[in-house]
Amino acid sequence: MTNALQVEHLAVRFGTKEVIRDLSFAVPRGSSLAIIGPNGAGKTILFKALIGSIPYEGTIRWAAGTRIGYVPQKLDIERDLPITGRDFLRAKAALAKASDSDIASALALVGLERPMLSAPIGTMSGGQFQRLLVAFALVGKPNFLLLDEPAAGIDEPGQEILDTTIKRLQKESDVTVMLISHDLSVVYHYATAVLCLSRTHPCFGTPQTVLTPDTLRNLYGTAVDFHVHDHSGN
Amino acid sequence: MSMTIPEISALALSLTMAVAAGLVGCFAVMRRMTLAADAISHIALPGIGVALLLRINPMLGALAMLMLGAVLIWALERQTGITTETVTGVVFSVALAIGSMITSGDQLIEALFGGPGKLSILELSLGLLGSAAVILFILRARNSLVVALVSPEIAQTSGINVARMNLLFLLAFALTIALGVRFLGVLLMGSLIIIPAATARHLARNLFGMLAISVAVAVVSTVIGTYAASLIHRETGPFIITIAGGIFFLSLLA
C-alpha cells in the first residue's frame, strides 16, 4: 500500500518553545488516522505544519497529485462581513475549476440547503457554518481530508451525516483522512490508526492497542472514562 | 458646457482611479486595514520630497516610495509575525518624519492635499495603465482574496500562495494611492479608498453588492466633487471626500 503522506523527524518551534519534537509517521492511502492528545499538545499545529502555513523542520512528503480538503477548528467570522455561503463556495469552485454541480453534490453530502447560502457567513449558526466548511473542503474532489474537530458545534443528526459522508467518500473514492477528535468512541470505531501527541507519552498504533486505560491515563494525565461499545454483536 | 481635451483626460483618469480605489477598498476594509490605509498613504511623502529635490515628477517619487513601503511592510510582517497594523504604524511615522524634513512648507501642503496643474502625457498614460492593472488584479484575485479572508489556512490548502497574494494586494493598494496622490494628496487618497468601501460594507449583503456599491460611491463622489469644485474654482480633493463622507453618513440611516 502506498503512502499518501509521509512525515519524518518533524519539529515545530515557537521561539524557544518546542511544540512538536521529532515526530515521524506515515499515512497509507485510503486509511484514516486519528490524532488525539490533551489541549496544547500541538494537534492543530501539526495540521498547520502539514499544509505549510507555519515554518517547521524535518520532512513532509505528500504523494503526487494530492488534493487537500481542510476543515479548520472553529473560526470567528465578523457578523457584518458581506460574504455569503454562495460567494465562499463559488470562490472554491473557481479556484479548483469545479462546476456548479460539484457545489450541489457537496451541499447534498453535508445536508445544507441552498437558501441558507444567501446569508452572510457571519450570521450562520455554528453548526451550519461548520457544514459549510466541510462542503467547501469537498468541492474540487479532494483525495486527502484534514479534519480538525469537524463535528464541533454540529448537532447529533448532523454528526451522523458527517460520519457517513466521510465513510462513503473513503469507500467510493479512496480518500485518505486525518482527523483530530476528542471523541474517543468515534476514534475507536472509525480510525485505522491513532497518533497520540504528547510531550512525554507519544504513541502510535491501532485503536485497539492505543486506546487502553493505561496509555490514556499517561496521555491525559488523569484516568479517562472510556468504554468501548461493541456494535459488532460478538 | 463644453470640455477641453485636458479636462476630459483628467476626468477619465480620475474615474478609472475611483473604480480602482472602490475595488481595492473593499478588500482593505474587509481585511481590517482601515487605519493602515490612511497610514500607508503617508509613505508617499518622502518619495514626493525626493522627487522634488531631484526635479523629477512627484508622482513617480510617490509611486517608488509606496512600492518600497509595501514590500517593507510585507517583509517585516512575514519575518517578525507582528501585525500589519503595527508594522504600518512604525513605517508610516518614520516616512512622515523624513518626508517633512526634506519637503518645504508649500510643497508639503500640496503633497498632503493634492494640487491642480496640467496633466502630462506621461502622467495620464501611467495613471490609466496603473488603474487598469489594479482593477484587473482585484477582479481576477477576488476568489483567492475571499477565501483568505475566511481563513489563510483554508486558502493555503486551496492552492493559493497566501504570502504572494498578500504582497500583490499591498502593491495594488500602494499603486492605487500613488495614482490618486496627484489629485487628492496623501491625506485624502486613503479616504477615497476607505470611505466608499465602508459605505458598501454597511449596505451590502454579498460580495457582488459590496464591490458594486463601493465602486458606485467612489465614482459618484468623484464626478460630483470634481464638478462642484470646478464651479467655484477650488481644489477637487476635499470636495470628493466630503461628498463620499456625506454618502457614508446617509448610508447609516439605511
What does this structure look like?
The complex is a heterodimer of chains A (about 230) and B (about 250). Chain A contains eight helices and nine strands. Chain A is of the alpha/beta class and about 230 residues long. Chain A has a domain at about 1-65 and about 145-150 and about 175-235: P-loop containing nucleotide triphosphate hydrolases (Rossmann fold, 3-Layer(aba) Sandwich), CATH 3.40.50.300. In chain A, the strands form two sheets. In chain A, strands 5-6-7-3-8-9 form a six-stranded mixed beta sheet, with helices on both faces. The mean pLDDT of chain A is about 85. Chain B is mostly helical and about 250 residues long. Chain B has a single domain (about 5-254), classed as ABC transporter involved in vitamin B12 uptake, BtuC (Orthogonal Bundle). Chain B is about 85% helix and about 0% strand. Chain B has helices at about 5-30, 35-40, 45-55, 60-80, 85-100, 105-115, 120-150, 150-155, 160-205, 205-230, 235-254. In chain B, helix 2 (about 35-40) crosses helix 9 and helix 7 (about 120-150) packs across helix 9. Chain B is globular, with a radius of gyration of 18 Å. Classes of the chains: A alpha/beta (about 230), B mainly alpha (about 250).
